[in-house]
Amino acid sequence: MNKAFIFPGQASQFVGMAADLYEKYDLAKKHFEQANEIMEMDLKSICFNGPEEELKKTFLTQPAIFVHSCISAELLKEKGVKPVAVAGHSLGEYSALVAADALDFASGLELVKERSRLMFEAGQKNPGTMGAIIGLSNEQVNEICDGLKDVGVVQPANYNSPGQIAISGDKGTVLKALDAAKEMGSRKAVELVVSGAFHSPLMLDAQNGLAEALNKSEIKNIEIPLYTNVTAKPETDGEKIKQLLLKQLTSPVLWQDIVGQMVKDGNQNFIEVGPGKVLKGLLKRIDRDSSCDLCGTVDQLESIGA
User: Fold this and answer.
1) Which of 4, 143, 235, 255 could bridge 267 with an S-S bond, Cβ 3.0-4.6 Å?
2) What does the pLDDT look like over 163-217, one tens digit per residue?
3) Is-catalytic flag, 68?
4) Which one of the listed residues 90, 95, 161, 186 is annotated catalytic?
């Protein structure tokens, strides 16, 4: 059966991630050996043993999730389960590109290593925060953010599913937006614990730095379409994808639209490839008729048939 692969972003990590895959598969061992060399540190130990606070650091979280996701995708392919389309939530877009053969694993990890470092440094230089708003429409959240544009920086960062939106910007303005959301009747409006205002203009320094890294790398044209975070449309041109990866750092992730477009294009059978089950939960809220298997553990991998 044709499956679309979807790849998670930050917040899907957990201590012990990919440990069972490492124990069972040589492919996982090789990927972690390569990852430790590229990262110039023992990423494997942090994935398997933590501590959790260390694994939560952006510059470690992103490579950890990327490595786990790429191992899982490669093992699926070895079973004969291949994607007909791919998408990834923020960081997950890089895992998706490796699965689509636009990048090899090592090149992808080099980019993720640089991206995560730049995002962490941008968060230190231009401090900001993010918030989650539950129970308001996209239009209502857009209206709140537009109403505060003369006060400071705040914008939607992730349109995750109907009634679930993340916002991003400077702390004072984000808190004002959360207060406005409560007044408008949101079920929940809370600040998130993050190391930066991701997917907002406060990531502009990271965007400029990543441009240098992307200019030195080759992203190949692909046959399997990538539904991009910035446009929610399928893309196969490597150079266009490069530009969209840059825009992604300061633009909202259009996840709800991505899933909607993938379904419209005939993809209703998904596999969430990598740690956790965040995207499966979002998928259920976006399109109840779609199915989503999980593939991040040995048991999950073995339960998926070719």
Assistant:
1) 4
2) 999 999 999 999 999 999 999 999 999 999 999 999 999 999 999 999 999 999 9
3) no
4) 90
